[in-house]
Structures are given as C-alpha cells and as structure tokens.
Amino acid sequence: MTLSLEPASHKRLLRNFVVILHAIIELIVILVGRFPAFDASASAVLGLESNWAKAFLRWDVFHFAHIAQDDYVYEYEYAFLPGTPYIMRHGSYLLKHFGLITDDDFTRSLIVGAVASTIISVDAVYTLYDLTLVYFPQKFHLALLVSLLSLFSSSPATLRFAPCSESFFAYLSYKGMLYAARGKLALASAIFTLAGVFRSNATMLVIYILWPFVVEPILVDSHLWGKWKSLLKKIPYAITLSIPPLLPFIWHQYKGYQMFCQASSQTWEARRWCSNQIPLIYSFVQSEYWNVGPFRYWTLQQLPNFLIAGPVLLLLFNASIYHISFSLLPRFRILLGANYKRKANDNSDPILNPSLAPHAIHALALSNMLLVSAHTQIALRLVCALPFTYWAAARLFFLKRQNAFESSKLKPEDCTTTLSRAARWWVAWSILWGTISLVTWAVFLPPA
C-alpha cells in the first residue's frame, strides 16, 4: 500500500517545489530587472515607462513576438519554427476577445506566451517522473530524484519564465518518449509531430519510433536474423510513423521557398540559396545570419561560451559513451556470436539500463552537433529536452569515484549508494549557474 501511494505523494511534493521555484525565479528576474538593462531593445519596443512585460522580451523572444504580430516577413526569421508565435498570436486574440487583458497586442502576446510556457513546464516535471518509472519500474525515489534535478535546469529563464520554444519542446518530447516507451508508437508519432512545430531538432526524435520497431527486436531475439520476413513487415509501418515528425520542418522549408524563390510571389530578386540543389532556407539562414557551421564557433573569443556549456556537455558525453560502450555494444557483440557474460553488478548503474539505448544515442548525437556545429552555449537550453540529462545527473549520486568524468576508467562496480563529490558539484553548479543565468537574463546580458 505504501508503494502505491508514493507516486501520488511524490507528485504533491514536486508540485510544491515547482510553485516555490517559479516564485523564486520571478522574484529574481523582477528584482534584478529594476537595474538598467545592458541592451535597451526592450525599452525601444515597449517604451521607456515601466512595463513588467519587458522582463519577457529578450533574445529569441523578439523574433517570436514579431512573427506572432506580423507573420514571417524577413528571411532570418525562418530560423524559428512557428509553434511559439502561433500560441502567442492566438492566445492574445482569445484574451482580447474576452477582454481579460487590455494591454496592446504585442504585450498581450508576451504575457500569453509566458503563461503558457510556465504551465506546460509544470506538467513536464510530472511527465519526466512517469517516464523514469517506465524505464525503472518501482524505483520511485529514483524518479523523484530525477524530477527534482530537472527543476534545477541549466536554463530556468527560457524553460520556466519566458515565452520561448524550449518549454513546449521539452514537454512534447517527454510526452512522446513516454508514449513510445509504453508501446503507443502512433500516439508518440503524433506528439513528436507537434514538437516539430516548435524546434527543428524534433527530426531527431524519430529514433524513439524506429528503435523499438527495427533495432530492439533484433537485440532482444538473436534468432531474429532468420525471421527477416517478420522484420521487413514492420519496417514500412515504422517508416510511416517516422514521416509525420519530419513534416513540420519540411513544410517550414516549403513556405520559405514559396516566399523567397517562386516567381509568382517575388517582390525582390531570388536569393542565392534558391538555386541550391536542395534549397533549404533553414540551413542558409543559420549559416548566413548566425554563422552556424562545422568548427566556425571554435575561436578564442568563444572560449567562455564553451566553458559555460562544459558541465552539461561533459555530463552527456560521459554518460552516453559509457552506456554505448558497456551496455549497447556488448549486446551487438552477443548478436554477432561473441561470448559476453553480463556481470551481476552491472545492474547497479542505472545508466546501463539496456532500454536507454536510443536516449544515449540521441544525447551523443545532439551533444556532438552542439559542440562542433552550433553556438555551443545553446546546449544549456537544448539539453533540457533530454531526459537522459537528468538520468545522467541522478547517476552521479551513485558514483563512488571522485572524478565521474573519467569514463574510460569507470567500471560498473564503482557504483555505490554513497553520495559522490560529483553529485555535490553538479547540484552546486546547477543552483549557482541557474541563479547567474536568471540575473543575466534580467539585465539582458549574454549568453543567449
């Protein structure tokens, strides 16, 4: 009876923590926001007089708000998917229709986006709790630990305060992963499609559909190589479910092509990317306006941004490589006929759970992309959508070694229930950086 009550009591505890955390976040931003901002863009848009909505207007929110007001006008705006502006625009219309908020449309859209972002981030914590229990049945306290760690995210302003895409994308990613883990792959595909309306990296979520259909059956049943007909029957359905999450990004590219390349809609000379073999406005905009590309960010001036993103990237590289090396690759070796005996104490490390394989691959792929081909500091925002981030962080609480980032030396038998120094460092860094990032957000300082 006690065990059956734990999820309910844990969620009540999480709800209380979430309420307190959101109050602290808003208090920090409002108090620090009283100081002069480093960038006066928000005042230029909303006016010099006091306007508490100015605290929402930072970085990407300028683009979301403009798209919400006037739709896509400029080429560079196609770096942003339409999900967040859509919510801001139509939520603002509803509030205006019912006379709930009398501010101007621009301010109203900011408020709507912020409120929606806050609400969605609350249920995301519960979803992560449920997802953890699917992979770790009856491990209620592990699920609670993971959920609590997610509250101390590396980007609290974008995840729990401002009208940004991160909260919506993280929530939908968690929901889709939860349905996929429960075997409801058609529903997972639909949720991932919604996630694709908010961020382009939703295309990576198809791994959670393809893996249980194609890869996992082979790894579970080594005799399935002889049952290729059964496997081939599943592949078309897997591909069918994998297509919808790609459609929002494809449609976004088509709308950009239609606006800037098709002769019937031209009011200016066609842009040079229109003549590319694959005319993608998204990749052009990222390269042209944000200088995104392999190793372009690897300059001495950007070293502080690499250092800021270092802790989360180190955590993900360590845990994902460790899982692949000690859990996934041995399964492939067994499939190919190699002799491998799984040690009894292999189960003591939660990150070695075989069912986490698609999460480890996803985390490794995204981390590599962020390190090599992106503005590396955005890792602080994007990793919040990876449950693997918080599973890896929870793992630190079970490590005995002082240095948890020496993955090549770490062995499963090094796990213990004693709180490790790495865990203490992670919690301290999460709280410290989370607070600093709120201060920099409030006064409009980097990183974005």
From TrEMBL:
Keywords assigned: Endoplasmic reticulum, Glycosyltransferase, GPI-anchor biosynthesis, Membrane, Transferase, Transmembrane, Transmembrane helix
EC number: 2.4.1.-
Compartments where located: Endoplasmic reticulum membrane
Top EC class for this record: transferase
Regions crossing the membrane: 12-33, 110-129, 141-159, 179-198, 205-225, 306-330, 378-399, 426-444
GO cellular component, as recorded: endoplasmic reticulum membrane; mannosyltransferase complex
This protein's pathway: Glycolipid biosynthesis; glycosylphosphatidylinositol-anchor biosynthesis
Key word Glycosyltransferase present: yes
Primary localization class, coarse: endoplasmic reticulum
Protein topology in the membrane: Multi-pass membrane protein
GO biological process, one term: GPI anchor biosynthetic process
A Pfam family reported for this protein in Swiss-Prot or TrEMBL: Mannosyl_trans2
InterPro entries: PIG-V/Gpi18 (IPR007315)
MF term (GO), any: GPI mannosyltransferase activity
PANTHER family: GPI MANNOSYLTRANSFERASE 2 (PTHR12468:SF2)
Family to which the UniProt record says this protein belongs: Belongs to the PIGV family.
Biological role: Mannosyltransferase involved in glycosylphosphatidylinositol-anchor biosynthesis.
Record's protein name: GPI mannosyltransferase 2
Organism of derivation: Pyrrhoderma noxium
